[in-house]
């Protein structure tokens, strides 16, 4: 009996997942390594008791919870692997991830637990290398130019 109930819940969960994946196109974006990015919560939320941001990294086979927020207490629980890098806006439920790493590349989804469980994948993120950045290349060039000028004149 209990097992049956569990199986039914699991099937319902999987069905919801399939439906949402098909209906909602995540936004493709690329972010430079080291940058911060604010994942704006774009979907209309149902009544919920818990909201979670979850990631399915490209490099992994499974999803991981980044943050959980309790609707009533607005308590934010950050997963230990994201400690100090995550800010959740408890009014808008937008997620800011700081100092992004290449391993942060993946599919970012929100799930709510309460009346319904609807995983909505909102962002498909590729974290790309930062070489060619103007700030790191420009400054040495200016210094070199002024040094040369000093030597030559
Ligand atoms: C995102 O990229 C994938 C594969 O490159 C593509 O199939 C999908 O349509 C893109 N999504 C959007 C919203 O442009
Ligand atoms: C949060 O909980 C309150 C009561 O507990 C409820 O009235 C409200 O609709 C919930 N908010 C959301 C966004 O579900
Ligand atoms: C991913 O999961 C599939 C089965 O779901 C398994 O066959 C495969 O080995 C897994 N790959 C990795 C990299 O864990
Ligand atoms: C996410 O982006 C990757 C790489 O850009 C692409 O291969 C993949 O198809 C995209 N997935 C979705 C669901 O848009």
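^ structure tokens above, recovered residues below v
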């Amino acid at each position: 009996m209990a097992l049956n109930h569990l199986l039914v819940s699991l099937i319902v969960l999987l069905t919801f997942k399939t439906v949402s994946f098909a209906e909602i196109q995540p936004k493709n974006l690329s972010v430079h390594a080291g940058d911060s990015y604010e994942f704006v919560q774009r979907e209309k939320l149902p009544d919920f008791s818990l909201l979670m941001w979850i990631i399915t990294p490209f490099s992994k086979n499974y999803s991981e919870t980044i943050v959980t927020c309790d609707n009533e207490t607005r308590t934010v629980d950050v997963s230990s692997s994201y400690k100090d890098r995550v800010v959740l806006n408890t009014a808008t439920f937008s997620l800011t991830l700081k100092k992004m790493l290449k391993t942060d590349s993946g599919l970012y989804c929100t799930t709510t637990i309460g009346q319904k469980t609807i995983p909505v994948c909102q962002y498909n993120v590729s974290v790309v290398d930062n070489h060619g950045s103007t700030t790191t290349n420009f400054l040495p060039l200016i210094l070199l130019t002024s040094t040369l000028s000093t030597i030559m004149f």
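The pocket of 2-acetamido-2-deoxy-beta-D-glucopyranose (ligand 3) is lined by residues 61 (CB under 6 Å).
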